Amino acid sequence: MYQLSTRPCLFGYLLLLSLPLAQAQTVTPLQGQSQQQVQSDIAACQSQSGTTPSSTTTSTSNSQGGERLRGAAKGAAIGATAAEVRGRRYDEVYDKVDDDIKQQYRQNQARDAAAVGVAVGGSRQRQERREDRRNADAAAQAQSSANQAYTTCMSGRGYSVTP
Question: Is 162 helix (H, G, I), strand (E, B) or coil?
Answer without folding.
Answer: strand
